[in-house]
Design a protein that fits this description.
This protein is mainly alpha-helical. It has two domains: about 45 residues, Arc Repressor Mutant, subunit A, CATH 1.10.10; about 120 residues, Tetracycline Repressor, domain 2. It is about 70% helix and about 0% strand. It is built from nine helices and no strands. GO terms for molecular function: DNA-binding transcription factor activity; transcription cis-regulatory region binding. This is DNA-binding transcriptional regulator YbjK. It comes from Streptomyces harbinensis. It holds the Pfam family TetR_C_28.
C-alpha cells in the first residue's frame, strides 16, 4: 500500500505560507510545492477551506506532540500545574514559525478554526476557575507571559538574546511551581 500524500501536502502548504504568506497559498501552489497534481491534492482537500482547516489541525498536532514530550507522561495523568508548565516552557522557549502565527491569526475570523486553538490551550493550560491562592494567579501569569514571549519573538523580527531568553524562561517556569525558590 502506498503511503498517503496527505502529510506531505500539509508540510508543503506550510512551506508556501512560511515563504510567500497565506495569500499565496492556493491549491495550485500547495500541489506544486508538494510535487503532486492539483487533482491529487483535491483528493485529500477538496477546497482551500478544507486545506486551511487541515493545516490548523496539523500544526496543533505538532504542538501537542512537543507538549507531550515535555510533559513526559499522558496528559490525562498530569495535574493542571504540570500541563501548564509544559505549555509555558514550549511557548516561551520556542519561537513561533511564520505559519503558526499566520494560521493562529487567520483563525480569529473563523470560529471553527479558532475553536481548535482554544481547545489546545484549554487542554494544556486552562484558565483557572477561581483565583483564591497566589499560586493560581502565578499559574495564569506564567501562561500569559509565555504567550507574550511567543508573540514577541514571532513579530519582532529579532530574537531575544539567548541569556535573556533563558532567564525569562526560567522565571516564567518558576511561576508554575510555588514550592520553587524565587530568584
Amino acid at each position: 500500500m502506498r503511503p498517503s500524500s496527505r502529510p506531505l501536502i500539509l508540510d508543503a502548504a506550510i512551506r508556501v505560507t512560511e515563504r510567500d504568506g497565506i495569500t499565496a497559498l492556493t491549491l495550485e501552489s500547495a500541489a506544486r510545492e508538494a510535487g503532486v497534481t492539483k487533482a491529487g491534492l483535491m483528493y485529500h482537500f477538496p477546497s482551500r477551506e478544507d486545506l486551511l482547516f487541515a493545516i490548523q489541525k496539523h500544526l496543533i498536532t505538532r504542538w501537542e506532540e512537543r507538549l507531550a514530550e515535555l510533559l513526559g507522561k499522558p496528559l490525562a495523568e498530569a495535574t493542571v500545574r504540570e500541563s501548564t508548565t509544559a505549555y509555558t516552557i514550549e511557548g516561551a522557549a520556542n519561537t513561533a514559525s511564520k505559519a503558526e502565527l499566520t494560521f493562529m491569526l487567520e483563525s480569529t475570523a473563523q470560529p471553527a478554526l479558532a475553536r481548535q486553538w482554544d481547545e489546545l490551550m484549554h487542554r494544556w493550560a486552562p484558565l483557572p476557575e477561581r483565583l483564591e491562592e497566589p499560586a493560581d494567579v502565578d499559574l495564569l501569569l506564567a501562561r500569559m507571559a509565555s504567550d507574550g514571549m511567543w508573540l514577541y519573538e514571532a513579530t519582532s523580527g529579532a530574537p531575544l538574546p539567548a541569556p535573556l531568553k533563558a532567564a525569562l524562561v526560567e522565571r516564567i517556569t518558576a511561576l508554575t511551581d510555588p514550592a520553587r525558590p524565587r530568584a
